[in-house]
Each structure stands twice: as structure tokens, then as C-alpha cells.
Design goal:
- This protein has helices spanning 11-21, 85-90, 94-101; strands spanning 24-30, 36-48, 51-65, 71-77.
- By secondary structure, the chain is α+β, with helices and mostly antiparallel strands.
- The chain has one domain.
- It has a 4-stranded antiparallel beta sheet with strand order 1-2-3-4.
- The radius of gyration is 18 Å and the shape is flat.
- The chain starts with 10 loop residues before the first helix and ends with a helix.
- The model has no long low-confidence stretch (mean pLDDT 93).
- InterPro entries: P-loop_NTPase.
């Protein structure tokens, strides 16, 4: 999209700007029951060479469905300590984040 605007920036520079601007990616999907659910919470870690690196923090694992056909599932933590942990602690959210991570 940046190149379509005619800015002619190098691809690596565009990726570096994206990696610097984003902390988290929240992926929402429409499930087969018609409902939308957050299925991944992914941290943008930074750059390795020309590649934006990410790590999943949480994912939704569906277990089945209830009598009405609604999907049932659980959030599963990857157990990976996020790189933004120091910022979470600064804002008083460190303990809550660690409890959520299991």
C-alpha cells in the first residue's frame, strides 16, 4: 500500500516502520457458527534482517460445540514472556499479565 502511494521507499524501510509502530496484532476470525472470535494475540518483536519477527502470546483452541451449535473453546497461553513486560509493569499491569499468561 505504501508503494501504491508512489513514495518509492525501500521495502526494508517500510518493514522497519511497521515493526516499530506495532506492539500487538489481534487476529479475529469468523467461526463456522457465524460468531467472530479473537483467535490469536501476537507480539511484534522486531526485525531480523529483512523479516518482521513475531511471537504468539495467546491462541484460541476450540474444543467442540454446545447443543445450539455454538463453538466452545479456551484461550491457551504460549507461556512466552512478552518483550513488553517492562512496560506492562511500569503501568501496573505486570501481575495481571503474568496471571493471564499462566
Amino acid at each position: 500500500m505504501v508503494n501504491m502511494a508512489g513514495l518509492n521507499l525501500p521495502t526494508k524501510a517500510i518493514r522497519e516502520q511497521i515493526a516499530a509502530a506495532l506492539d500487538l496484532i489481534i487476529q479475529v476470525s469468523r467461526m463456522r457458527d457465524g460468531g467472530r472470535r479473537t483467535v490469536y494475540v501476537t507480539e511484534v518483536v522486531g526485525m531480523e534482517g529483512d523479516v518482521i519477527t513475531t511471537q504468539d502470546l495467546f491462541r484460541f483452541e476450540w474444543k467442540g460445540q454446545d447443543e445450539s451449535g455454538k463453538l466452545i473453546g479456551d484461550w491457551v497461553s504460549s507461556g512466552v514472556r512478552p518483550h513488553f513486560m517492562a512496560r506492562a509493569e511500569y503501568f501496573g499491569l505486570g501481575r495481571a499479565l503474568m496471571q493471564a499468561m499462566g
